Amino acid sequence: MNEQIKIATRQSYGEALVELGKENKDIVVLDADLSSATKTELFAKQFPERFFDMGIAEQDMLSTAAGFATCGKIPYVSSFAVFAAGRAYDQIRNSICYPNLNVKICATHSGITVGEDGATHQMLEDIAMMRTLPNMTVISTCDATQTKWAVKEIAKRKGPVYLRLSRYATPVLYEENQTFEIGKALQIGEGTKASIIATGDVVCEAIKAKEKLEEQGILVRVIDMHTIKPIDQEMIIKCAKETEKIITIEDHNIMGGLGSSVCEVLAENYPCKVVRMGIKDTFGKSGKAEELMKYFNITAEDIIKQMA
Question: Among residues 123, 145, 200, 281, which is most buried (max CB within 10 A)?
């Protein structure tokens, strides 16, 4: 993990869009008056004829994206997660998922790490909402390398995709030559004391905990569950069989998110206790991202406490 280089996944998203736009002329990008924040402005400068600022009209934006998809285009739709998943849920459900259209919903500013914007803008329910929709693929990336891969990879995947991105700058965890696959988690380490299954911007916290625990002679493994749906059932069951404890951690409500997904797999295949770390069925608060992560107990130190 490169602690010296920290990049917000929304930034790498914008950069990857430009690269993808050069490779594929069918890519169009839609935004809802937030292009400077979502970083789609980078695409807009390079390809103004393929960029559409829909204004503060997220429902219209998703419906328009559905129209583009029916004409053979590959629309990438961007807004804050609270608006992309929340305000336009009806359009996502009925106009995109029901007809199984090829729309990529790339939602930035997810979780409590949005920070000072406060509870109204800290989307903690989007994974739960999106993973229950038939035909939807749900991805939550943890660093710049993984995000650039995901942005390009989902263009090859037919059907709706929800890509969850963060405002919070996280360390670069992976080398550029790292290989990823949708639906296949990555295992970091071989420890048997615990499996820490993480997604999104807290994967780095899981790795920090792993490194600190190793200094104490406690060996754990970290599972980067970048794909929430389809989830890697084989990896989850393997970890349950090989390690003493299963811990999930996410910058999301523990109800309906990664933790719930893991519990569903294990309840049906290999029942065992799961410790779910995340936002415990409450709204967020205003504050700096690091302060909020401590307040809601989703830091490396909080993971370490679970080893007692």
Answer: 200
